[in-house]
Amino acid sequence: MPIELDDFITEVRGFLDAHATRRTGGAGDVQWGVGEDRITYFSTEAPEVEAKAVAVAKAWQRTRYENGFGWLTGPTDFGGRGLTTVHELVYDSLEAEYDVPDTGVLAVVGLGMIGPTILAHGQEKIKQRYLPAMYGGDVIACQLFSEPAAGSDLASVETKAVREGDEWVLNGQKVWTSVAHHAQLGLALCRTDPDRPKHRGITAFLVDLSLPGVDIRPLRQMSGGADFNEVFLTDVHVPDDHRLGEVNDGWRVALTTLMNERATVGGETGGPAGRAVSLPFLRELLRANGRLDDPATRRELASLYAGQAAAEYMNRQALRKLRAGVQPGPEASVSKLLYAQNLTRAAHFAADVVGPKLIADTGEWGTFSWTELLLSTPALRILGGTEEIMKNILAERVLGLPKEPGIDTKSPFRELRRSARSSA
Amino acid sequence: MSAGDETTVADADSEELLALREAVRDFLAARSDEAAVREVMIGERGYDEKVWSQMAEQLGLQSLVLPEAHGGDDAGFVALSVVLEEMGRALLPAPFFSSVVLAATALVAAGDDEAAGRLLPGIAAGTTLATLAAPGPDGAWHTGEGALAVAASPADGGGLVLDGTAGIVLDGATADEILLVVAAPEGPTLVSVPGDASGLTRTALRTLDPTRRFASLTLAQTPATVIGQPGAAGPVLAQVLDVATAALAAEQVGGARACLETATAYAKDRVQFGRQIGSFQAVKHKLADMLARVQLADAAAREAAAVLDGADPEGDPGVASAVAHIVASEAYMSVAAENIQVHGGIGFTWEHPAHLYFRRAKSSQLLFGGPNAYHERLLARVGI
C-alpha cells in the first residue's frame, strides 16, 4: 500500500529539514544588484569547478536515496520506493522550497530517460546492477544516440555492432552526447543489420564507458562551455547481457528514451534561467535601465509575460491530468516548443533593454551577464528533437496530416545510403 | 473533425461538461449552421428570435451561469466557457454576450437587489435583452484614459438625466434595457435606461463582423435609474471586465479551433503537385504552429474560468483573465488569417466561411480596447 499523502508530506518535510536549508524570501523579493547576476542555461564553468559541482550533485542524490527519496516511482526490487507520480510531484514541489544542489547532471538524461529505458528493456541482472547505482548517485548515464550523419534522422545510425560469441564489438562515432564527460554508462544505438529497413536493423546496448576503446572528447559550445561531447567507439567489446531488448529491435528501445526526453525538456520551468522569465526580476531590469515608463518596452513585457503565464497554466493543467492518471500524449510537444520560444524571447527582450552594455562588459551588475543566456538560446530549438521535428510530430500525430512522401522506411538501410550518395 | 475532437477528448472535462458541450454543439449544428448564420447576418435584427428562445427553453443557456436567487442555475464559469466555446465555434449571432455576460455580470457585481430582481429573471429566461456599455471619449469601451462619454445630471423632478453619445454599443439597437457607466458628480456610476426611453436615439452601425451587431446611442436629457451606489461603478466595471474577457477568451478559443480544424481538413483533402498539401512541411508546420497557439489559448481560457470559479486558490482572476484575453485574442487573429492562407484563393471568397472567422477574430480582439489597452491592463493587474 502506498503511503498516505499526508504522512508522506510529513516524512519529506522531516527529511528536508534535517538535510537542507529552507529558502528565505519568495520570488517576489528581488534585490537588484545583490548577489549572483549570472543567468545560465548551460555550464560555462572551468572543468575543475564543474567536477566539484558534479561531486556535490552525486552526494545529494545519494542522500536522497539513502533516505528513501532517490527513486520514488521505481520498483522496490531495484531500489525504488514503489510510489506514484503524485508522490514524486509532491516531493519535487516541497524540495523546491529548500536550497539543495542542482542534480541535473544525473537526473535529466540518466535518471529521467535512461533509467526508465533500462527498467523497460533490461535483463533482470542488468537492472539489479545499474538501477540502484544510478538512482543512488554513483553512476551517471548518457545517451549515445546522434551521429554526424544521423541527427534528426536518428534511425540512420551507422555505428556498427558485430556479434563475436557472447560479446558484441562496437565501432563508430557518436556526437552531441550531453554529460558523457561525467558519465560512467552510455546507451548506444548501433546498426546490427544493414540489410533490413533502417528502423529494423538497430540494436541498443548499455556501454560501460570505462571499457577500452571508448574515447570521450568534449565539444565546446557557442556559449563557451562544454556540456556535450563526441564519443568515439573503437573495437569496444560489450557483453551480450548488456543488450537492451531483442537484436534489431533497438528502435523500440530508443522510443522509450525519446518519449521521456520530450516530457523532461518541456516540463522545465525553474533553474537559474527561470529567473529570466520571472516578472519581478524583469520589472527590476526595466527599473534599473529607466525603461519602466517606456510604452513600447511595457507592451513587449506584457506580451512576453502573457505568453509565459499561459505556458505555465498549460503545464499546470498537464500536471493535474497526470495526477488524474492521464499520460501526456504527443501534444506535450507544444510545451517544448513554447519553452524554447519563451526563453529565447525573454533573452532578446532583456538584451534590448540592457542595450549597448550587453556588447561590452562594463562590470555593471545585471547587464553583460545576460550574454550567457542569450548565447544558450539557439540550442533550445535544437536539443531533444529540433523545432522542425516537433512540428512534424504535432502535425502528423495530433492533427493526422500525411507523412512526407519519399521517406523510405522499407528498403534495406544499405541501399538508402548508396542511393542518397549517388543522387547528391 | 479529427483534430478538435482529439484535443477536446483528451482534456480533463467532467462527464457533465462533456454532455453540455455535446448538447450545445448538436443544437447549434441543427439550428444555427452556416446557412442559418448567413441568413441572420444580413437580416435586420442580427439574430434569430426563435433560436434565441429555444436556447432558453430547451437548453436553459441564458440562465446557466446566473444566480439561483434570480432565476439562474449557478453552474459556474467553467460551464459558461463550454457554452461560449461552442457559440464561438459556430459563430452564433445572438445577444448572448451582451445580455448574459456583460449586463448580467454588472447587475450581480453592483449588488443592487432591486435592479437584479427587476432585470435578471428576464435575462435568465431570455425574455429581456440587456446590454452594457462603458463608453470612453471615442465612444468605445472606456480604457481608463479620458472622461466617460455620457454625463449624468440631476433632473428637475428628481432622479438623473443623461446626455452624451455612446458610440459603439454591443447589441445596442435591439436591447430592451441598456446599462451604462456614466460620469456622475459622485464619480463613475452604473445606470440603466430602457430601450424606448425618451431622448434616446439608437442607430445601428455597419460592422466589421456581421455576426455581431453594434449601435450608436445618443442621449439627450434621457431619464435613467441608478444601479448600486452613485460613484461606485469603478470596481463593478473591473469585475465585469475580468468575467467578460475570460468569457470572450472561451468564445475565441472555440472560433480558433474551428479555423484549425477547417484548415487541417483542407490540407488533407487538397492535392497539388500530386500530393496532399498537408504533406508539405511548409503547410504542415504552419498547422503545427496554429495548433500550438490554439492549445495555449485554450489553457489560458480554462485557467481564467477555473480561477473565476474559485477552483484555483493560487489564481488571481484579474491576472488570469488579462492573460487569457491577450493570448486568446492573438491566437484567434493569427489562426483565422492562417486558415485563409492554407485555403489559398478559395479562402478569400465571400462564399467560404473563413472570412467570417477573420472578421469575428479582429472584432473580438478590439472589443475592449485591443492591444493598446490589454497589455497595460495586464501590467496594472500585476502591479507594474
UniProtKB/TrEMBL annotation, chain A:
InterPro entries tied to this protein: Acyl-CoA_Oxase/DH_mid-dom (IPR006091), Acyl-CoA_Oxase/DH_mid-dom_sf (IPR046373), AcylCo_DH-like_C (IPR036250), AcylCo_DH/oxidase_C (IPR009075), AcylCoA_DH/ox_N (IPR013786), AcylCoA_DH/ox_N_sf (IPR037069), AcylCoA_DH/oxidase_NM_dom_sf (IPR009100), Mycobact_Acyl-CoA_DH (IPR052161)
Listed cofactors: FAD
Pfam families xref list: Acyl-CoA_dh_1 (PF00441), Acyl-CoA_dh_M (PF02770), Acyl-CoA_dh_N (PF02771)
Boundaries of every Acyl-CoA dehydrogenase/oxidase N-terminal domain copy: 46-137
GO molecular-function term, one example from the UniProt record: flavin adenine dinucleotide binding
This protein's UniProt keywords: FAD, Flavoprotein, Oxidoreductase
Record-annotated Acyl-CoA oxidase/dehydrogenase middle domain positions: 142-236
A single cellular component GO annotation: plasma membrane
Domain (Acyl-CoA dehydrogenase/oxidase C-terminal): residue spans on this chain: 248-399
Stated family: Belongs to the acyl-CoA dehydrogenase family.
Entries under PANTHER family matching the protein: ACYL-COA DEHYDROGENASE (PTHR43292), ACYL-COA DEHYDROGENASE FADE34 (PTHR43292:SF4)
Protein name, UniProt field: Acyl-CoA dehydrogenase
Biological classification of the source: Bacteria, Bacillati, Actinomycetota, Actinomycetes, Frankiales
From TrEMBL, chain B:
Domain of life: Bacteria
InterPro entries: Acyl-CoA_Oxase/DH_mid-dom_sf (IPR046373), AcylCo_DH-like_C (IPR036250), AcylCo_DH/oxidase_C (IPR009075), AcylCoA_DH/ox_N (IPR013786), AcylCoA_DH/ox_N_sf (IPR037069), AcylCoA_DH/oxidase_NM_dom_sf (IPR009100)
Cofactor: FAD
Documented EC number(s): 1.3.8.-
Alphabetized GO MF terms: acyl-CoA dehydrogenase activity; flavin adenine dinucleotide binding
Acyl-CoA dehydrogenase/oxidase C-terminal domain location: 238-382
A Pfam family matched in the record: Acyl-CoA_dh_1
The keyword Protein transport belongs to this UniProt entry's keyword annotation: no
Keywords noted in UniProt: FAD, Flavoprotein, Oxidoreductase
Signal peptide start and end residues: none
Domain Acyl-CoA dehydrogenase/oxidase N-terminal: 14-126
Similarity comment text for this entry: Belongs to the acyl-CoA dehydrogenase family.
Listed name of the protein: Putative acyl-CoA dehydrogenase
